[in-house]
Amino acid sequence: MEQKILSSRARFAQILSILHKHHIEKGIDPVKFREILEDLGPTFVKIGQIMSTRQDMFSERYCKELMKLRSSVTPMDFDTVQTILNEAYQKSWTEIYESIDMEPLGSASIAQVHFAQLKNGQSVVLKIQRPYIYERMERDVSLLRKAVKVLNLSDIVSSVIDLNMVIDEFWTAAKQEMDFTNEAMFAKRFKRLFKDCNFVYAPKIYDEYTTHQVLVMEYIEGIEISDTEKLDSEGYDRVEIADKLAYNYISQVIEYGFFHADPHSGNLRIRDDKIVWIDFGMMGILERRDRELMKDAVRALALRDTTKLVDTILTLGIVNQEIDYPAFTNEIERFMNQYLNLSFSEMDLGVMVQDVFTICHHYHIALPKGISMLARSMMTIEATLNDLDPSCNMMKIIANHKATLTHVDLGKEAKKIASKSIDAFVKGLDLSVQSSDVLKMVQRGQVKVNLNLMGSEQPIAKIDRMINRLIICILIAALLMASSLICTTDMDPKILGIPALGFVGFMSALAMSIWLFFKMLQLHRRNKSF
């Protein structure tokens, strides 16, 4: 059986030793950060994987590096596997399965996978959760929360990222992933949505043998989608597979708002002329509102409508601080101009998505979790499509099927227009009453106008620093004048023939002058204002 969890104190010491091993005191870069997370274990690997999906919050360099995260985990021994199965079923696993392969098909931080056969001879795959994984993650999350609180990290990096939000998002996602009944539910929902699609398939889930720690699904013996040689030898048309895969992915996103968030080649098989999706542990969900806004964004991009795209992004995102609207609009305008002379099919989806997220990151606009997952997922599917067909372009395929994205539902549009017309009529009736109220307030002197000048923060800060310097200079001058007056008296005691109080005043003025000079010199070298 796997070793039980360490105490919080022992785990904290272990974390410190890992950080020391990587010489954290010498600074950090994306590669070192990824290696540290891998050494820290499954909790931190999962946090890194979530960070890689939030390109609106973290820089491009870090997100790209974190997408390479892997968890190097020693497989559980077969005795541990048997113990977990017996505890999950409250009886011997031999009463359910004819056989289970002792060697796992794969081993990851949360679970490992084994091939097995049921008593009726059907081939299945068992996904078995590692013992104590929930307790280990819960302990690490608790340590993280304490570290954020004690070290005041949340305040330090609040202008970049809300650490408490990241930890909450991770823990919610991790708890869902560790409950295999959620993955079973996702797999069944996916299978149900595409049951009428003649080129897509999802494995069957065996509910009667699935528990919170054990997932049992149909074994898929197909060709991995990246095995191009075998696909060619079997007579498959890779260009056709790429087109169908992209079309199905677009349908998942636009039509259903329920998409596979990790569509790398290892999660796709070709069997009996069908694309088989496997591993539904990471699924993205888009609300209807978000899907409609995404359609608006695509229409704005197709029509080169900058204003519409800006408004859509601001509606879709969460603005964490006051935004400079003109500057943001100019940034989006520059983004649009890059693609002004390109056709829809010539655009590079990965670069476009990254550019938009970079702009959002710069202006502290956090996008919904589903949108962030979609961005990462779209870059992954594009890489998968390129494995199938190097000439494949996701935007080109979207252009071929852009009716799905740019189609205008006349019924819905009519309802929107009717709703807006009624709203405008009601507001029009209220306008005269509100105008009368405003005029009355003006007459009484009760009207207050709040004026906020965007971009005024830096000039005001400079003025503030200038005033600080003037105050120090006035204090120095006051000390010199006061000390000079004191020196005209015959006060005792004396130092070097002058009154001690005057001497102290002169020395204080000298010390302040020297401090001010070196402070200004130091900041000048750093190219900063004092």
From TrEMBL:
Family per similarity comment: Belongs to the protein kinase superfamily. ADCK protein kinase family.
CDD domains in alphabetical order: ABC1_ADCK3-like
Domain ABC1 atypical kinase-like: 68-310
Keywords, ordered alphabetically: Membrane, Transmembrane, Transmembrane helix
Protein name listed in UniProt: ABC1 family protein
Keyword Transmembrane helix belongs to the record: yes
Transmembrane regions: 466-486, 498-518
